[in-house]
Amino acid sequence: xxxxxxxxxxxxxxxxxxxxxxxxxxxxxxxxxxxxxxxxxxxxxxxxxxxxxxxxxxxxxxxxxxxxxxxxxxxxxxxxxxxxxxxxxxxxxxxxxxxxxxxxxxxxxxxxxxxxxxxxxxxxxxxxxxxxxxxxxxxxxxxxxxxxxxxxxxxxxxxxxxxxxxxxxxxxxxxxxxxxxxxxxxxxxxxxxxxxxxxxxxxxxxxxxxxxxxxxxxxxxxxxxxxxxxxxxxxxxxxxxxxxxxxxxxxxxxxxxxxxxxxxxxxxxxxxxxxxxxxxxxxxxxxxxxxxxxxxxxxxxxxxxxxxxxxxxxxxxxxxxxxxxxxxxxxxxxxxxxxxxxxxxxxxxxxxxxxxxxxxxxxxxxxxxxxxxxxxxxxxxxxxxxxxxxxxxxxxxxxxxxxxxxxxxxxxxxxxxxxxxxxxxxxxxxxxxxxxxxxxxxxxxxxxxxxxxxxxxxxxxxxxxxxxxxxxxxxxxxxxxxxxxxxxxxxxxxxxxxxxxxxxxxxxxx
Length: 510
Prior knowledge:
Protein name: Serine protease
Structural class: mainly beta
GO molecular function: serine-type endopeptidase activity
CATH class of the largest domain: Mainly Beta
Strand content: 35-45%
CATH architecture of the largest domain: Beta Barrel
Pfam families: Trypsin_2
Shape: elongated
Number of helices: 5
Helix content: under 10%
Largest sheet: 14 strands, mixed
């Protein structure tokens, strides 16, 4: 049986006027009985450049150790060899409405412009690499590692050993997956490995970015799709699956979570006809929880607005005048939707309520479920793993001394549309919070310290703890407690206002 080895590569495409770059993988197929016999070797990458055959291609290979046949190399030298196109395949990929795919959409628009799978060859490539196996198929929630050669036009030495970790959050139609890892320049064609192992799962296809700046995802083409496109033979320990010819729609596959059926999208049209969406949780029987800012376009004018709840049974509930929306605390961004319409209740009875309320601590592994970044009818919630970065506890009301958790910050990736989604413990799938928002971070401008741009950091998320939700529900909604009894610092906390005093204990010599 053939044995496979690999090395990451950097690729440059240049002519008299332009120079571009990508990442890639050098695959070396050796005889299983005699590792000195090379059956085949080639470089694979994903090309976004129109008319790539008009460019000179050069390749730099990142090897775990120098070849025995090569002379000792200077570590400060980066060696590039000539490459040529051996084979290419156009790839059909239909973008979602409101999204661009990069790098291809950075080039002038052409009706024939397509991403291509390139199979390259070069006489200067290494004869050995790291042992690798091939994955059968990725699954949602898989932990993955990306290896690539970003910014290789900026500095081809410093970034030559780049790797980052993340999770598979969704699956597109056959052979395409979504990950929550942030894309960086020249990463297309980069290597996708299963978790922290040497199991090849696919290559980085490109960066799917929302036009309004709300967020982005990396698209991965899996190794089985690549095998099928190129008809690669002698694959060890894998069973290639049949390709589907239907590449016209993108759907998120079923999330392997006990709680996913209790996470419901809200489709909202305001009184002016503007449409938006968000997420909600079936918290208790006939009661949904979400964010105030999600439901407000409808709640501000329920007579002219529309709010629909898309159920996993493919049924739709449309809120009526009999249903009620309660926003107990202004500025806390928490809303309760009470389904009181008898017909709506009958439909809602088929949807399970959230299972259990979890205990949690800083550093715990958690995951989020939400309808973030984009929404299509029939899709399932996006799944993103992370950790609890911070918990802030606070006394919720005047006259008591015990504290409850008032704010959670987590590294789970959330996007526009994720608001109102759920945060769950990794080990027992219990609800611990409601997704509220993510942070806007400052992006500095070179040579201008007084100005900056803002960008959403999707992996820095603010969560309303279940402790606060339970307090509001039982004390304020069921117990009719007045908001005047609230500790005002709870509202300051959620407006990120300071309610402390900095005290200098002792001056320090510098």
